[in-house]
Specification:
The protein is mostly helical. It is 88% helix and 0% strand.
Length: 56
């Protein structure tokens, strides 16, 4: 695993937590921020996967 994969996984997990917290507090803005963070994390993981594939 490379650094992008790890950081992407952490962002994805943090985004899920933020989204759920927003749902529990009925705060749509926090839910949206959580979803955005999940997307960022998933993109970063994908970049890491591509890098990993080409570095083998």
């Amino acid at each position: 695993m490379n650094q992008d994969q790890v950081k992407g996984s952490v962002k994805d997990a943090a985004g899920k937590v933020q989204q759920k917290a927003g749902e529990m507090m009925h705060n749509e803005k926090q839910q949206e921020k959580g979803i955005e963070k999940q997307v960022e994390g998933q993109v970063q993981k994908t970049v890491g996967n591509v890098k990993d594939t080409f570095n083998k």
